[in-house]
Amino acid sequence: MEYGKIYVTGLGPGAADQMTVQARNVLEKCPVIIGYTVYIDLIRADYPDKEFLSTPMRKEADRCRMAFEEAAKGRDVAMVCSGDAGIYGMAGLICEIGKDYPEIGIEIIPGITAASGGAAVLGAPLMHDFAVISLSDLLTPWEKIAQRLRATAEADFVICLYNPSSRKRADYLAKACGMILESRAPETVCGIVRNIGRDGERCEILTLEKLKDTQVDMFTTVFIGNSNTMELNGRMVTPRGYKDV
Amino acid sequence: MEYGKIYVTGLGPGAADQMTVQARNVLEKCPVIIGYTVYIDLIRADYPDKEFLSTPMRKEADRCRMAFEEAAKGRDVAMVCSGDAGIYGMAGLICEIGKDYPEIGIEIIPGITAASGGAAVLGAPLMHDFAVISLSDLLTPWEKIAQRLRATAEADFVICLYNPSSRKRADYLAKACGMILESRAPETVCGIVRNIGRDGERCEILTLEKLKDTQVDMFTTVFIGNSNTMELNGRMVTPRGYKDV
User: Fold this and answer.
1) Residue from A8, A104, A132 to probe the interface with B (highest B Cβ count within 10 Å)
2) Looking at the predicted complex, does its ipTM rise above 0.90?
3) Which residues contact B168 (CB under 8 A, 6 or more apart)?
4) Looking at per-residue confidence, does A128 or B14 come out higher?
5) Are A181 and A154 spatial neighbours (Cβ–Cβ below 8 Å)?
6) Is-contact B18 B12, C-beta < 8 A?
7) Mutate which of A29, A128, A145, A231 to test chain B, going by most B C-beta atoms within 10 A?
8) Where's the Tetrapyrrole methylase domain (chains A, B) (predicted)?
9) Model's pTM, two decimal places?
10) Which of A193, A208, B24, B226 could crosslink A188 through cysteines, CB 3.0-4.6 Å?
11) d(CA B72, nearest CA chain A) in Å
């Protein structure tokens, strides 16, 4: 019997048309689609003939082993994530657990991550060097996150924050903004985007000072401009250089 | 007469199937496609009925005005870039020049950027916080680039380098690696990917010390792992946290 293959597939921010053609082809080809319930629900209606498998949120390793077990039965598996499978997604854990299943092939299918998707909604905030930082301290010590916030703020990066808030971390965005304000102007242009590419998508452009006092949820991506970022006709725009264009 | 609209569209790394469904729909809908010659040539054969317009490499502002002039005639325009239109792409300049054409609508269609596309080829290097830095000093002082390299190396980011080399900047990657080596181990796991998603795609995983002595070209994207990044079955993998999973 031939083994199946695992395609770790990023679905993009949400809307079906923000998926790549390659990702759509994978979903059409694979008889089994595995993912976290919320993402599975986004696509289930479009693929009525598939077998959908899932595990709860913090059971990522179980979900990966489920994918390898299905592939070992000879079935191609799409392991889906929102955004890009390779950016805080499932690609890493699949590669790690793949050590135990050397006979199973793995292919990573990239997707539009929230930094790209959110930037497109706001305008063009990522025209210059940027850093992507997750504020979740579930697996990373807060001191490490704080060091990264301060380092990139001082070096004038555009900063994109993933997981800016949760019920247990309601004050993390305010703390992060406070650290960034140590080296950056209060009027620095910032942007927030909620529900990128999904129903209820909305965005707002605001100053860093105001962002500090803004409550966001876990479906929000936050952008902090560099010293040159500006608001232009309701869009957040970072010029592509520091010299005249 | 109704004005046309400008769709600033990221084509992804190269292969037609790494385009999003949305980008493909835009190309099908717009009668005019504008872009840098190299990207136009990637898609010309697929769209025989379109009008293709182009300008040479450093004439980006002219190319943008060309798009607004066409839209002013009532035609929808796809302004195409490789990768993501919003990451070192044309989205920013279109928004800036759009000040002079307030009557023309602009929509940004995100695409797979080289960081996402290259990561998928290498394995899963971007599972934790990362910084994207361009080594091109055409519009940015080298001192600013150097500050960013040092800051992100010290804060243990995964670092993704765009434009790592050109004929005039053959030694820039070596210089950048030298700066990163001031705070990072010589055996730090790194990866390079050339021609992502195109003919002749190839990748290599190597140490930071070896990367310093490696010659790359302008079609290469470079990944420098964080202190936890490892090589696993020929893949570059960054664990998703600093605590046990």
Assistant:
1) A132
2) yes
3) none
4) A128
5) no
6) yes
7) A128
8) 5-211
9) 0.96
10) A208
11) 18
